[in-house]
Structure formats: C-alpha cells, structure tokens
Amino acid sequence: MIYPIILSGGGGTRLWPLSRTSFPKQLLSPLGGPTLLQQTALRVKESQFFEPLVICHEDLRFLVQEQLKDCDIIPSQIILEPCSRNTAAAIALGCFLQKNKENCLLFMPADHVIEKKDLFLERVILAQKAAQQESKIILFGIPPRSPSSAYGYVTVEKSGNDVSQEILTISKFLEKPSVQRAENLIERGDCFWNSGIFLSRADVMLAEIKKFEPLIYEICEIAAQNAKKDLDFLRIDALSFEKCPNVSIDYAVMEKTDKCVMIEADMGWSDVGSWKSVWDLSPKDDTGNAFVGDVLSQGTSNCYVRSDDLLVSLVGIDNIAVIASSDSVLVADLNATEEIKEIAIQLKDHKRSEADYHRRVYRPWGYYQSVDQGDRFQVKRLMIKPKCRTSVQTHQYRSEHWVVVRGTARVLKGENAIDVHENESIYLPQGIMHRVENLGETELHIIEVQSGSYLGEDDIVRFEDDYGRHSHPLKEEEKR
C-alpha cells in the first residue's frame, strides 16, 4: 500500500483576491464543488492507499482539519510547520515521520486539479513498481498542451527501463522557460510539464536529500524527533525548523540526482496557478465567457468574471479577468494573470491587510466578518458554530456591545453566566473577562460593536481556550 503525503503549505498568491495568506488557494473551490485540498484527499480515498498525512502551516490547522472532516477524510496525521520552508523540507519531514522507511510515499501538492482520476491511479500503481523494484523517485510528467511559461519542464530520453517502457530517464529539468523556448521544446517532442507529484520510498528520498542537502536532512531530522502532540495535530519543533534552508525539492535534489525518472501521465492535470487556467477549466457560454456570481454582460467575449457580492457589468470587453471580492476588485488581461503575484507583493510591501485577510476570517469556533469601521469603532458579524465557544478572554483597549440576531448565546461576563436571546443585547466593558458559547444545534449569529482606542485582533488575553491557542498582553508601544 501507498502512503499519501499532501503538501498543503502553498500561499497561492496568483489567485488573489480570492486567495489570501490566511485562506490560500488549496482551501478554495475555484471550479465549484470540493475545495482543491478536498479533491486531493478524495483522490487517494482508495483501497491501495493508507490515510493521508497532511503538512500545512500551523495557522491553517483548524481550516485544514475542518475541510478534511467535511469530506469524511480522517488523516493519519496533520503536521504543523511553524514557518514555510518550501517543498524540500516538507518532503523530508514526511519521510522522517514514517515508521517504516521502506514504505512508498506519494507526494502531492494540495492545490492541483486532476480530471482523469482513473488514469492517475493507474499511473500511481505503475510508478510504485519502479519505486519498489529499482529504488527510483518517479516524477509524474504531463504532456504539454501549450507552450506555457508558467510551468517547469523536463526533457526525457525516449526509452524505458527494465520495469516498464513507460518509465523514462530524465535528461534535464528546465525552470519555467520563455514562451519561445517552450515552443522549441514542444517541437522536439521529448519534453513534459513538471507536475510536482513524486512517488518514492521514504529511505530513497531521504538518502538523496542527505546526499545533496545535508543541512536540510539534519535540521528536519531534529525537527521531526522533537515534534510535540497538540490536540489532534503534531507540531514540528520551531527552534530547529526555522533554521532550515528555503529550497524546492526540484532544486535541492531532482536536478542533481540520477535516481529521478519520469512516468508520462496524461491525466487532465492543472496546477490552477492563474485566473487564465481557471478560465481554461471552466464551462463557457457561446461567446467564451465563464461567469460566477452576479454578472451581466453585453458585447463581451472570452472573459472570466467572478463576483462574491457585487453586481459586475461588462460592455464591449474581450479577454479580461474580473474578480470582485467583498473588499477588492481585480481587473486583468486574461493572458497576464500570471503577473498578479506582483500585485500581492506590492500589497505586502505596503502592509495592506488585503494581502493576508478577507473581511470574513475563520476561527475554530466559526468566523467573524468586518461590516464597518472608523475612528474608535468597528462593527463585526460573529458566527459561532453549534456546540462551540470562544476563549475566556479580556481586551485591554476596547469595550464590546453584542446583539444576538439568531440563536441564544451563553455569555460569561466576569463570574456570571447569562443567556442572551434573539433581539437581546449585552455590554462588555473594557477589561472584563468574557466568553460566548453556543449550546444550541444551529448557528449563533451576533452583531458586535467595538469601541476603544485600539481595535486590533491582537488585543486579546486568553485565560482558557478549547483549541490550545495562546496570547500575551500588548505592550503600550505595540498598540500604536
């Protein structure tokens, strides 16, 4: 049997404004239906696979856990990285955490689409034979559909090995060539897109990492050995892992090793890395348009338009992507959507919250959504899931007024527990210890009005928390 390792650490900045640091691409459903993470996990919910091991950033742990639960996936482990250190480190961790190092591991990014699942599974079984019998690392290569500069390429020798004529020797890895260079490669007929999906025995992968990147090997070995259990998660040791080089597995190992071979996999693969690729995969009308949400058009063709809230109207437009979220609107030439990551960089440089957060921010107990804000006030909508509750907490710089609009809230105010029903309200003065709990079977909705000198989310001192979250009081200079 095969152990799937789902790599869920990507940020997905190329699908901004839908993807944000706090809600990256793998947690989205750009084509409808299950999210990309859920699709990846469901793809290996078959008899030949063990339960998947998922590696993600610690800040995403509850979202990842909830999405897997929603599609009836019980992971063998959810591994929490304290910081992102790219795919070489994540793959090393996945290998070190295997008890039997001769196990075959299938390493899969969490944010890809594979339309032909049966062919994918067939290729996996064939790759497993090469991994077991010849101790190879097998890359899944995709026949190129166009001269794209968005993907890495590999060139191969057109002759198989002893296991199968379909296992090909790799000549060279090429990192995202120009369109002209890609056209030349495709004309030669010996190149494939690099899918980033690998199958290997754990001991073989670790040996190659140790050979070419001994520092990554040593640090990840220590980080895995010192990992600590935290609720349903396994936390990687932060002190050691933060020192790990930030290197992709391609650069660290695959471009150097003679162990990596390729299997052709024409399985309807896409990394969904741009709005152009989302448009490519989406159903379209007679004029080539793909619309999601409240959209009207006249004389418009070959466009991708998505709106979460706003009405978007287009007149006389061609080959454009328009993405309207609750707080941002992106308009781009459909063929230039690969460059959107540069906008995300600018947002980070200018410390814009739109780089990291949506107006709706998810928490393990539900979510909060910003409705309005101004000088010394902020209005939020809170949703607390059934049988869930927030932490026992205080705020140093703000007071809160809660109005229950749906359900019944059990509110801890100081030492008193008070039931607040629909159309009732409660005032929580600055500094008072409080918590809200939903004892019901349906969602609890609250409108929260905050007022005070500082309204940041870091003004929380937690005293008790069901989810193991911690906080520290803000210093005076930190609130400015």
Brief overview:
The chain is an alpha/beta fold. Helices cover 22% and strands 33% of the residues.
CATH topology group of the largest domain: Spore Coat Polysaccharide Biosynthesis Protein SpsA, Chain A
Strand order of the largest sheet: 20-21-22-29-24-27
The total domain count is 3
The unreliable regions are 475-480
The backbone outline, from C-alpha atoms, is globular
| Structural class designation | alpha/beta
Distance between the termini: 55 Å
> Regarding quaternary structure, how should these chains be classified?
single chain
Largest sheet: 6 strands, antiparallel
Question: Based on the structure given, which CATH architecture of the largest domain is correct?
Answer: Alpha-Beta Complex
Tell me the radius of gyration.
25 Å
Number of strands: 30
Share of helical residues:
10-25%
Number of helices: 11
Question: Can you say what the CATH homologous superfamily of the largest domain is?
Answer: Spore Coat Polysaccharide Biosynthesis Protein SpsA, Chain A
Secondary structure layout plus pairing:
Elements: E1 2-8, H1 36-43, E2 53-57, H2 61-70, E3 77-81, H3 86-96, E4 104-109, E5 113-114, H4 117-134, E6 137-142, E7 153-160, E8 167-174, H5 179-188, E9 191-201, H6 202-212, H7 214-225, E10 228-230, E11 233-235, H8 238-241, H9 249-254, E12 260-264, E13 269-270, H10 275-281, E14 290-292, E15 295-298, E16 304-307, E17 312-315, E18 320-324, E19 329-333, H11 340-349, E20 360-363, E21 366-374, E22 377-384, E23 392-394, E24 398-406, E25 409-413, E26 416-420, E27 425-428, E28 434-437, E29 444-452, E30 461-464
Parallel strand pairs: 1-2, 1-4, 2-3, 3-11, 6-12, 14-16, 15-17, 16-18
Antiparallel strand pairs: 4-9, 5-13, 6-9, 7-8, 7-9, 8-12, 10-11, 18-19, 20-21, 21-22, 22-29, 23-30, 24-27, 24-29, 25-26, 25-28
Helix pairs in contact: 3-6, 3-7, 6-7
